Amino acid sequence: MMPSKETPIVVAVSGGPDSMALLSMLQKQYKTIIVAHVNHNTGRIGQKEEETFVKNYCQKYNLIFESMTIKNHTKKNFHNEAHKIRYQFFEQLLKKYKTNYLFTAHHGDDLVETILFRIMRGSSMKAIHGPTKISKKNGHTIIRPLLNYTKQELLDYNKKHNIPYCIDPSNEKDIYTRNRIRKQILPFLKKENKNIHLKFLKFSEELNEIENYLTNQTEKQIQIRWNTNELSIQNWDQLDQIIQKRILEHTLGKIYKERTHLESKHITMLQTLIKNKSGTTLDLPEQIKVRKEYNTLRFIKEETNNTYQLELKQNLILPNGHQIKLEETNEDSNFVCRLNKQELTFPLIVRTRKQGDKMIIKGLNHHKKIKEIMINEKVPIHLRNSYPIVTDGEGTIVWIPGIKKSQFCKTKEEKYDIILKYY
């Protein structure tokens, strides 16, 4: 939906023929125009003059002029950094002037170049489609009214209406892939069809519709499957493969703020992990470990050491924030253990499990491995190595709090003089 003529609008203006043509057209429609100019500060000759040119134009026609200069950027990721900085600047202006409408001068030739460039780069389907006429970003509306026009049509418009503009000489250099597309491939396509940009626009709009549908379906699944670093894979096979992939991409987006270390192979690795039986793990970049536990994937920041051994005197707060207290209670669940001092060697110790740990479960006459007990009781894998185990002074395991009691744990009817409770 286009804004009314009374609504303030922000227009991105470089000073080139495209943005100056757009600005001229908008001057005829809107009363309050905020011109936003960005000096990319790349060392190219003429950038300061372009800023002065746009500023003088705004003064002549009583337009609001706002500018900023990019001061710090790296050559390696310049285009991505510059894009991010530009839109941060635009959003600041939208907020400052209390409007939600940003106009940019992307035209039909830009659209063709963008789509071809992304295909050549091997971008995914959701990234191939070019800019749309109207899109939303952070609650704001971005409008690109020139997508139906070619570059030549904008040049002709400027000539007809005597619109001044600047020329960026870097657009003529063949060292840039986009420039080679513009100078070599685009003219060939236009010979085949002078309205090729309209064909690409239709193609882009259809791709965008498909992308919106897939995004909506993915978000619905994320809402019911994602919960604080855990992804439910219940009935995973019932989902289409493309939705499965999108869910995993979305999940990694939540885990990683910056996705510079992620590649398509990590999605493939997660898909393989899901197909494997429970109990398998996967290492991802930045010390993120993924564990499959039954119908759940858990994403955990790996810790260097989560073992401990502590003496239990009165009340003990464990490293995970849980507690074991000596106190009176009538409760008789696995969260409570009653002991007879005469049967044990003191002090009592609370520690994490060790390889080969065994315990005689109350009511049984043989030892059972702690590992097997935890598996049978479905203790999540990521908790097993840090789960508390209570032993006496000689290392005999007397209780796994909240899970199983040993032969040393007494019923309320038996003789005991210590009560332990696990919180």
Summarize the structure.
With about 425 residues, the chain is of the alpha+beta class. Helices cover about 35% and strands about 20% of the residues.
CATH superfamily of the largest domain: HUPs
Distance between the termini: 57 Å
How much helix is in the residues? 25-40%
Q: Write down the overall geometry.
A: elongated
State mean pLDDT (0 to 100 scale): 87
Please state the second-level CATH architecture of the largest domain: 3-Layer(aba) Sandwich
Number of strands: 21
**In the CATH scheme, what's the topology name of the largest domain?**
Rossmann fold
> What number of structural domains do the residues give?
3
Topology:
Blueprint: E1 9-12, H1 17-27, E2 33-39, H2 47-60, E3 64-69, H3 78-96, E4 101-103, H4 108-121, H5 125-128, E5 134-137, E6 140-143, H6 151-160, H7 177-192, H8 196-225, E7 230-232, H9 241-255, H10 264-275, E8 281-284, E9 288-293, E10 296-301, E11 309-312, E12 315-317, E13 323-326, E14 336-339, E15 348-351, E16 358-360, E17 367-369, H11 370-376, H12 381-384, E18 389-391, E19 397-400, E20 404-405, E21 418-422
Parallel strand pairs: 1-2, 1-4, 2-3, 4-6
Antiparallel strand pairs: 5-6, 7-10, 8-9, 9-10, 11-15, 12-13, 13-21, 14-21, 15-18, 16-17, 18-19, 19-20
Helix pairs in contact: 1-6, 4-7, 4-8, 8-9
